[in-house]
Amino acid sequence: MASAFLATGALGVAFALAYATWVLSELFGAVLLPYLRWGPSTEVRRADRGSRVAIVLGIVVATATASELAHAGYATFPVPVVEVGIALMMAGVALRQWAIAVLGRFFNTSVRVVEGHSIVERGPYRLVRHPSYTGALVTLLGVGLAGGSWEGVLVLLAVASGVFGYRIRVEERLLVEQLGRPYEEYRRRTKRMLPYVL
After folding, report:
1. pLDDT at 28 over 70
2. Cα–Cα distance measured from residue 25 to residue 4, given in angstroms and rounded to the nearest whole number
3. Is 80 exceeded by the pLDDT of residue 37?
4. Phi/psi of residue 114, each to 5°?
5. Of the chain's two ends, which shows fewer C-beta atoms within 10 Å, N or C?
6. CB contact set of 164 (below 8 Å; sequence gap of 6+)
7. Residue 124 to residues 95, 145, 188: CA-CA distances in angstroms?
8. Rounded distance between C-alpha atoms, residue 153 and residue 147, angstroms
9. β-pairing verdict for 112-114 and 43-46
10. What mean pLDDT is predicted for residues 135-152?
11. pLDDT tens digits, residue range 51-65?
């Protein structure tokens, strides 16, 4: 039985690299690079309602809880499952960064609409409305599996579902209000996070 939170050797290094990649992708890929690439946009309306803070705090607390569960002896997964978790972390990071790149200047870590805001329907947005959140959920599922316990997986997915569910409700309310019928039609054609399912 294994947990990447407790692992040494190659498994521990792989998890540390995946975790560092995740954190750096958020700091640089989701915050710094979009600002440097597209610069500040003229904001038309902001309505974050604390969702950014909820996401950050939720992820920090859930990840710390998964780590504590591993340290408390709940890790029961075999090494191949932990390895799949690490691979899912990297896949989730890649999906999120792709979604951010495709969204371009409309991406921001807070909920807002900018001048000239339009609906993006290319790349992953052809199938789902919030692929960056899908990427984040895949990453967190990976962290849970890498942590080695079902309890950790459940905590991470429950917290992530709650905070991202709240964020999506806030975001879609603003987009319907500001973009009107075109966004409502886009909502009818697509799913929130999983193609053809959810």
Report:
1. yes
2. 20
3. no
4. -110, 170
5. C
6. 55, 130, 133, 136, 137, 193
7. 8, 25, 16
8. 8
9. antiparallel
10. 97
11. 999 999 999 999 999
